[in-house]
Amino acid sequence: MHISELDTPAILIDLDIMERNLQRTAEYARTHGLRLRPHTKTHKIPALGRQQLELGAAGLSVAKTTEAEVMLCSGVRDLLVAYPVVGRQKLERLCQVARKADVTIAVDSLAVARPIAEAAQAAGVEIGLLAEMDAGLHRVGVLPGNDLLTLVQGLVRLPAVRWKGVAFYPGHIKDTSETGLAELDVLRRLVAEAIGHLRKNGFAPEIVSGGSTPLLWESHTVPEVNEIRPGTYIFNDRNTVLSGACTREDCAATIMTTVVSVAPGRVIIDGGSKTFSSDRLSNSTEVTFGEIEGHPGSSFHKMNEEHGFVKLPNGPGEFNIGDRVRVIPNHICVAMNLHEQVYGIRGGRVVETWRVEGRGKLQ
């Protein structure tokens, strides 16, 4: 099938670009002795998780228990839930997952860890724990230093769980500009001091898990880190381009839409907030929701549920009703969660169709 035969809106994945992204990152991790544990929140597709594992990934990361259940279909044997797991139903399901794969959970309090240990003990399984450290994002995690040490001291006393190390997410560093590199220097010192403090007190972490797609290629410059969890790198998006971690030629995912209305100075495409992420550009005041391929100067500046508003610099003759428009989204991870299926393409032809099986897995 040619892509022109697809109904719109539709997410298209250029397989040549995606495979290049996967190969490049796998080779980077091997070269620098880093365990690659991709975060599947970006693609949400077990078949793509399997590809990452086949290329040498040590395991996969997920955010929710239901995502862990989905990713079992990839054949994964080592899963990290990089999110506090709270609630009886979640823990019961997680213990079932732990019967089929090694499961580790990132936690930032004993109030989260104790019920995990109790559930694991009752189910007769062992679950790994990473102590989550706040590296500057101020989202989850304890402060490095004595707070982290106290958390680890509490984790090692719990039954049916095994403390395996430390996790952090440097999501506050959006790019490798002069400001970003200065923040990275701060991060290096913070991680070194935090891990050094643990070791001085008799706790040597097996795993120090960090990393993000914007900082992917700088991961090896944080010496204590031995595991990385990038997610967006498989497809990349406009924010990844602006971070400096990739170029437009590395963006594997575009969203194909159709022009449904033409007026002076604007067109309407058949994709709005039910198709695209509402996330703005990182570190920018520009109000856009994606880049229109092949139409420099146009601005995808507004969305209703079903309508995408595109300003035109060159007058209405630039587009006609029925034209297909491909958009590089600002944030592909959220857009994937809005689509039931996506299409893998080569040379303009659809060669793969994948259900987004992790879509809507919120629990």
Count of alpha and pi helical runs: 9
> Which descriptor suits the 3D outline?
globular
Q: What's the CATH topology name of the largest domain?
A: TIM Barrel
List the uncertain runs: none
What structural class should be given to the helix and strand makeup? alpha/beta
Descriptive keywords:
globular, 363 residues, 2 domains, alpha/beta, 28% helix, TIM Barrel, 23% strand, single chain
Describe the structure.
The protein is of the alpha/beta class and 363 residues long. The chain has two domains: 3-9 and 246-355, Beta Barrel (Lyase, Ornithine Decarboxylase, Chain A, domain 1); 17-234, TIM Barrel, CATH 3.20.20.10. Helix content is 28%, strand content 23%. Strands 1, 10, 11, 12, 13, 14, 15, 16 and 17 form a nine-stranded mixed sheet that branches. Strands 2-9-8-7-6-5-4-3 form an eight-stranded parallel sheet. Helix 7 links the parallel strand 7 (161-167) and strand 8 (207-210). The longest helix has 23 residues, at 178-200. The model has no long low-confidence stretch (mean pLDDT 96).
